[in-house]
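RETRY 2/3 - previous attempt timed out on the joint model. Re-submitting the same 1545-residue input unchanged.
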Amino acid sequence: MKNLITKISLLLFGILLLTGCDTFLEEDLRDQIATDNFFKNDQEAILATNGLYRILHRGSLYKTRGLDNYYVNGADEVGPSRNVNGEIHNYLIAEGVADGNGTWASLYEIVRNSSLFITNIEGNENLSEEVRNRTLGECLFIRSLAYFHLTNLWGDVPYFRELLPLAELGTLERFSKDQIRSDMKDDLSRAIELLPNSYSGGDLGRASKWAAAALKAKFHLFDKEWALAKSECDNIIDNSPHTLLDDFSSVFDQSDLNNQYNAEQIFAIDFTTDGLFGDASTQRTDDYNPRLRDEPNNRNNRPGGPGTPARWELLQADLQAVNQDMSGFGWAIPLPQIADQNNWDPDDLRYDATIATEYLGYELSFPYFRKNWNLDNSSPRQNHNENYIVFRLADIYLMAAEAENELNGPNNAFPYVNKVRERAFEPDKPWSGLSQSGFREAMYDERKYELSTEGYRRMDLIRWGILLDVVSTVEHRAWNNPAANIKPYHVLLPIPQDEILLNPNLLNSDQTNNGYR
Amino acid sequence: MKRMKILITLLLFCFSFIPLLAQGIVTGTITDDSGQPLPGVNILVEGTNTGSISDFDGMYSIIGSPNNVLQFSFIGFITKTSTIGNQTVIDIILKEDSEALDEVVVIGYGTSSKKTLVSAVASIKSDVFENQPVARVDQALQGRAAGVEVTSNSGAPGSGATIRIRGASSINGNNDPLFVVDGFIAGSGFNLNNINVNDIESVEVLKDATALAIYGTRGASGVILLSTKTGKGLPSGKPTIRINSYVTTEMLANKIEILGGQGYVDYLNESGQFVPGPDVDFNGTMLPLGLTDASLPLQYDDPGSVPTTDWIDEVSQLGTIYNTDVSITGNTETANYYSSMSYFKQEGVIKSSGLERVTFRNNLDVRLTDRFSTGVRLNLSSFKKENNKTNFGQIISSVLPVRTIFDDDGNFTGTNPISGSLQRNPVADIQLRDDHDLVTNIIGNAYFEYELIQDLKIKTNIGATLNYYKNNQYQPGALPERILNNNIGGFARVSTNQSKDILSETTINYYKKFGNHVIKLLGGFSAQKITSEGTDASAEGFPNDVVKFNNLSLGSDPESYQVGSGYSQRTLSSVFGRVTYSYNDKYVATIVGRRDGSSVFEEGNKYAFFPSAGVAWNIDEEAFMDNVDAINTLKLRASFGEVGEQGVNAYNSFDLFNPQFNYFNETLVPAVILDAPGSTNLQWETTEQLDLGLELGLFNNRVIFEAGYYKKTTKDLLLFRDLPNTAGNRVLENVGSVENKGFEFLLDTKNIDKNDFRWNSTLTVSANKSKVLDLGTEEFINIQSTGNQGGPSARLIVGQPMPVFYVAEYLGTYKDPQEIIDDQAEGRAFLGSPRYRDVNEDGVINQDDYSVAGSPQPDFYGGFRNTFSYKGLSLDIFFQGSYGGEIFNIVTQTSVFGRGDENVDPRVLDRWIQGVNETSNIPRAGTSASLFNPNSTLNVEDGSFLRLQTATLAYDIPVEKVRMENTVKSLSVFVTGRNLLLISDFKLGDPEVNNFAAGSGFGSVSQGFSGGAYPYATSISVGVKMEF
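RETRY 2/3 succeeded.
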């Protein structure tokens, strides 16, 4: 009896030991999606592509002064209303200081994601042809946009087109900017083929073939491939459904949430107010909005005498009466010269649509970009809905004009620029009789007035080779003095310090790190 | 009914018939060596259920037959047997069992006498934490055990402490000790709120490899064994009923100073009028030296009318704790039991925070037969934790004194009046928000033990922890941030989690004594499965605040519904064993090992073996010590071995998508983005530990001194390697290595030991030094980047302690334009602006210029307890402290360098002011408003402190004298003060802080960051303890 119990017990013990094997220790993943188990149907391909648009919302790109730090600021349009963002406005950029690390990270996040998606979508028989083409086109477009920014800002950068093993991705050297851009133009040609002509309803905000064409035109123009730039612009002007609006200011009017898109916009990053996730709304508007603590002029004056409300309190009350407030940051106000109407053509209607120096009868302490502000207090601080317009048709006209002028001289370029000026002046002030170089230099100002703060000014100055000259001579407010610091190498950013620490190969091709060392 | 009675009578008759054959009554007296009668001795007729117990005079009687053997057993004495034969009177003298008298220490899967223990185990008995006004036992362990550093992170009711046993040995893995509750492996994340402190009999802290290796992969951070009370060893007979009750008043302690009023307004106005220009020609160089531009608007043109709100006062209150527990415990011949229930209620010193809890415990051991015993340990708890509604850190850092609670219309203010940004209103938070956790927890074990053959026992233990968690939140539409964000109506959120942790363990124990040799063997198998399932849902647009979180579907905005759920599982399967051999109690050797398999590793890497061995030598047992009267105990211990840490989350090796959303034209669509890449080929982290110990007892053990030295080396550390952004975010690798070594001292003295006056002292001092040995290909890892300006603030650096603060050196202010030129800081610096050492002289202050500025690790820490007793009166005073660690004050950047839209430290009253105070090293207002303003040596402060942690005065009322002996067995009253005095130089309140979550990850090594945690209280409790 005793023996039996012993044996049974030992047997049980042994069985318990054995049950501990194999299946018991298997990982049981139930609540997450593994990447190797995806792209099985249309919906999954669309989900993935939506992710790329999501990344474009990051603060380091379009939500706030991510790309704008290097595209809008540091040129001749925008400065802060006080001593903020000094590294950018005073050209104190160095490795580890405003070196664009976050922007770099988000752009490569796009490259990694889109490359994985492209590999999986291309030739995937599980997808319908329509969705396969569209999503592939969107991925190709957004990846090209990422490489566009990367090569604009850093020149030669690490380059890959598929998600290589981690060890390889982490040790890449810088790669020829020209080759990358050449590949991207090819990719965009494909995207133009694959993408639809237009979208409607809940798909507005996706990239159409015209978005891809506009980006391709930008590439060509920046790379001084005038003929290709011209033909791409012509293609958009002639064949796309996009048209110029009659009224300049209505291009930027996004006050009606249900009608934010218009015929002139070719591609926009869609922001919304009260969104479900943090990056859903834009914070860029806050930079353009005034802050009440600065406004209005003589704000502490009490017009009714001692004991009566100060001017700022009066303004606040008047704003509240129309459901508005001034709760912005004031980080992006017009520099003195662009703010001064004397520097504009007196008949340029765009001045009033662009600049505000008084409001509700109050003279303001600072000028503001009326074009970008939104004082509506139902869209409060850091929760604005304004889409970031990346490409619009007027820009395409001006690009076509510029390319034509470089290619064949001004004669056939006038109609393009005059098309844009037509709505801008009352009475009309078309261009004529300019020399090729006169046309070129007139375009420096024309693009400034038409496209101020729209994200291309600094790159325009760089490609024209006049950044240093302009930044050193343009008037700044007391707290900024970029002229003292700007150097020729500032046309590019240094490869970010954090990135070099993790991947020293990035110095192989250029030990000076774009001149910053 | 009647038939039943007949049946029972018949049955009883049958049973009584059998022993009738040859039975007789045996009587006798049981005494000890000195002839003193021993009451309560168990007398058992071997092989039967017949038993008896000696009475108050040591007398007993029992019925037995001549061939029966009587067994006499009594705790602390050697069991004796006697065959009845023809005796009718058997007098017995029981000898004291010297081993049993020795302290018994609980260890993994068993117990050991302290004398034959090879391991380093700190044992804390219940008198240390009993009736302390704390909800969790960890809050009472501070300074009590050598080598155990306990840091209370927050004063919030129900919040835990960070416990580091012999230092932190993992970087990304877990650094919290493993909790084992009555043998159930409850994990390192076990919520101690579930255990009533007064149910705990002892807390054992396992520290060295021989003690820890039996817990294999979960032992590397140390193990804390909680043993709850049982009736074992109590004299048989009537149950004992105990009632404990106390009430506590808590007051906010060490309030943080914030500059308000005129001083603040001056700073703010000065800051607003500072402009970097104009350029001044200095030695041929144009320098913007900074000036005051009086034309710039003043924020407060009428400083006299500035409001002052003391936000800390507004949100704080006197806290209270009320605790009562009742227990009933007893022992019979075949069973012992302990049952208790308790009620604990705390209202915190911050309004609307608190904890309300009930617990029930039932411990039962039953000896079914000679060979078969069974028992249960069952704990039920249910608590509601009112989470802190306000963000206290924000009150400290940025809710300005010039902000009013209400605006002119009587509505809550919702913005920072200076910056204009949206900011929560702390008073509105407290009045309007709902946020509480509801937890119901069951932790239970049942065991069956069977003696297979003589000395060989097999035991199966099945245990489970079931935890039900629910968090309810509601933010009504009236909250100012909701109004200002145009969120219409209220917001409600409900999260639940339910976890199930099942453990099955079977062990075999063998104990054999032959001659002077004793062998103990333990072998076992264990399998554990932990699953956790959660849901999360929220809705918005509640038109009124009636249903709140109780009915999410009444949120009127269906588009805003959010739902989520999750599942995770991990399994462990293990075999383990331990062999202990001792010779004559003089020489002891132990070998321990555990082979663990864990689901979180990939195929091929799942299993690992952790062995360990140790020896002990009781020198006092040697013949040559016989003549050394002064020394009663002298023992040397040494052990070496390996323990592990699994260090990774489940599903780590998968490449995953991160679910996201996006909007197109106001339409919400789902999206996915690549998550961090999966980490492949991971293994266990392994900690090797050498432990040396000395135990010395002098003068009849009136002086006990214990010293320990250890050296732990942890290798194959799982480290996140930051990837360049071209490759992704980061991956885990087994690359690093860290070392912890240290000394531990315990001095326990009976200073005075008179009959009616006793004075005992216990001093523990521990010193741990950690060092990062290897970080793979990295020379350092940035583990924190605090403050609003970026850049690292704490790093792990090879060769340095873990971690170190890593900052720029603050040199004071610029006082001479030439310094600006020398630093190439034109445009970046002004007279009176902060100056940092530009180590590489490149004109830019960045990470290249940072250096090590201290470590949060103290040089030593400890506790000093003195207990005095005079007749029924006793006084227990406990000091606890830490010396030599640094604290990182996160708020410094804004409070000393700020621009006035965040709170400023009263230190700025002494700032640099042109023409007034140009020698000051506190920067001029406004100069660093927009420039890169790195973390600096000014953030790093001395964190040493000494605290009068507890003082208890208790009085045992002599029940006979007050004629209450018939009502109560004993009665005592006590007064306890906690956190009565703090000596420290720290500028932001209490230095005992930890802004980052403990547990695992960088947070667990980023100790010593202070940003204004829930403040600590000083408390006074009054209580009564009764026994019936």
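The radius of gyration of chain A is 27 Å. Closing ticket.
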